[in-house]
Amino acid sequence: MKDASPAGPPAAETTSGTAPARGRVSRVLPTLNKRRLPLASATAQRGILSRVPLPTSFEDALEQAGLYPLRATGIEVLQINVGKKCNQTCRHCHVDAGPDRTEMMSDAVLDRCLEIVENSSIPTVDVTGGAPELHKRWREIVQRGRAAGKHVMDRCNLTILLLPNYRYLPGFLAEHRVEVVASLPHYRPALTNAQRGDGVFEESIEAIQMLNAVGYGMEGSGLVLNLVTNPVGTFLPGSQSALERDWKQQLRRRYGVEFNHLYTITNLPISRYLEFLEAEGRTHEYLERLANAFNPTAAAGVMCRTTLSVGWDGTLYDCDFNQMLELPLSPGVPRTIFDFDPAALEGREIVLGPHCFGCTAGSGSSCGGATVAS
Amino acid sequence: MLDSADHRDPGSTTMDQTYYRPDDLPRFEEIGREASDLAAKFFDWYGAVFAEGALTAREKALIALAVSHAVQCPYCIDAYTSESLRNGADAEQMTEAVHVAAAIRGGASLVHGVQMRNHLHRLGM
User: What's the pLDDT tens digit per position in A182-219?
Assistant: First the structure.
C-alpha cells in the first residue's frame, strides 16, 4: 500500500492474503505436466490471463507512461534456461519444474549458447532452470563462461548442495567465483516450507552454512551470495532494503549465517502459482492488485529490456516468464539461438501480456529484485 | 414464527446488513472531502509515522496490528495483516503481537482490581 499511495492510510489493499501455513506440504509432488492438468498448457494459461477483466491493459498502462511500444535497450544478460528438471516442486514455481520433467537443453543448443557467450560482448551469463546444476554440462557453462571473462550467475535452490553427487558445488562455485542467487522466502521455517516443501528450510540453512564456509557472503571474500524472497501468498513484497536489514539480522542471530543482498521478487501468475490462484479463486483479485500498483518508474526499468532468455530448445524470449507462457520474441527478429544477431535483437519490441503487471507493481520486480529504491 | 432466513448462520449475513464493509477501506481518503486541510495533515503525518526509522517497517506493522486488535478496528486488522506480511512478519510473530494486545487489555482490567481493593478497604472493617 505504501507503494500505491505514499501517504497511505490503512491499506487500500485488503488482501485476503496468506493464511497461516496449512498443514504439511509435501517435499516433492507431481508437476502439473505429470498430472496432465489443463494449466500445464501455456495456451490455457494465456487464455485465463487474457480473460481477467482489468481496469487497463498492460499496453495502455505503458502508453500512459510514455513507454509503448516497449523496446529492449541492449543485451546485458544472456539468461540460459537449461531445462525444467528440479529436485523440488515449489508451489509458486512459474516453470512447473520438478523431478518428473525431462526437458533438458540439447548439446547442439548448448554448444551454440556457449559459442555466443565466448564470441559476443554480453557481460553476464545467468544460468537457470529447473535446478540448473542438474544439467550434465552445467559445469562446462560455468568454466567456459568464466574463461571468457563473463560474470556468471547460478540460480540455486540451495537444497541441491546437499544431494550426494553435488557436494562438490560450494568448492566449485567458489573456485570459479560464480555469483550464487538462492531462494529463501523467509528466515523462519514455516513460511519457507509452506512454499518450498517440508524440510526445505532446514536444508537451505545447512546449504548457506556450506557456502559461508567457503567464503560466500563473507565480508572481503568477493564471493557473492544473494538471497531471493517471493511472498508466500498473494501480497506484494515490502521494501527490499528494509527486508534485507531484517533478514540479515535475523539469519545472523538465529543461525549465524551471512549473505550479501536480498532480492524481493513478485510472484507472477504463471504455471503453478496461477494454478494456486485459480484453485483459491483469487486470480482476478491478484491481477487487479498488480495492475493497481502499476509504477511507471518500475516499468521503465523492467529486466526484459536488457535480457535475452534462451529456452531449453533454443527458442529466444524476452524473459523467463514469457518463456514459460511460450511467448517467443516478436516476429521479424531472430527467434532461435541459431539465428542470434545482437544488432537485430538489441532494440527489439518486447512481447507483452497481463502477466507483465507483475514486474511493474510497487517497487518493481526482476531477476535482480526490486527495480525502484524503496 | 421466525422466517427461515432468520436462522441463517451469522457468517452468511450479506454485506449490506453490517456496519463494517471491506469495500470501505480503500475509500478512507474520501474523509478528506469535507475537511481537506485536516485530512492532508493527518495523511502526511500518518505516512511519516510508518516510514522506516528507529523501528523497522516490520516492527511498526506489528505494533499497528496489535493496536488494531486493542481498538478492535476491522479495517486496521485487514490493513496491518497485509502490511505485516509485506514487511516480512510471519503468522507466529503476528499471533504473538495479538497476544501482546490481549495481555495489555486483560491486564488493564485486572490491575483495576487494586482500585477495587482500595475502595473495599475504605468501606469494609
Answer: 999 999 999 999 999 999 999 999 999 999 999 999 99
The domain that contains A138 carries what CATH number? 3.20.20
Among the listed residues A177, A264, A254, the one whose alpha carbon sits nearest the alpha carbon of residue A227: A264
Reported as half-sphere exposure (CB side, CA atoms, 13 A), residue A9 has a value of: 16
Domain count across chain A? 1
Contact between residue A222 and residue A181 where contact means Cβ atoms under 8 Å apart: no
How many other C-beta atoms are found inside a 10 Å radius of the C-beta of residue A205? 20
Please list every residue in chain A whose beta carbon sits closer than 8 Å to the beta carbon of residue B25.
Answer: 10-12, 14
Q: Domain B55-123 - what CATH class?
A: mainly alpha
Give the 3-state DSSP-derived string for A64-123, with helices as H, strands as E and coil as C: HCCCCCCECCCCCEEEEECECECCCCCCCCCCCCECCCCCECCHHHHHHHHHHHHHCCCC
Rounded Cα–Cα distance for residues A16 and A282 (Å): 9
**Inter-chain residue contact A14 with B87, CB threshold 8 Å:** no
User: pLDDT (tens digit, 9 = 90+) per residue, A344-357?
Assistant: 999 999 999 999 99
Domain that holds residue A217: 38-360
Residue A370 contacts B, CB cutoff 8 Å: no
Assess contact for A209 and A38: CB atoms under 8 A. no
Contact B88/A at CB under 8 A: yes
ipTM for the assembly: 0.73
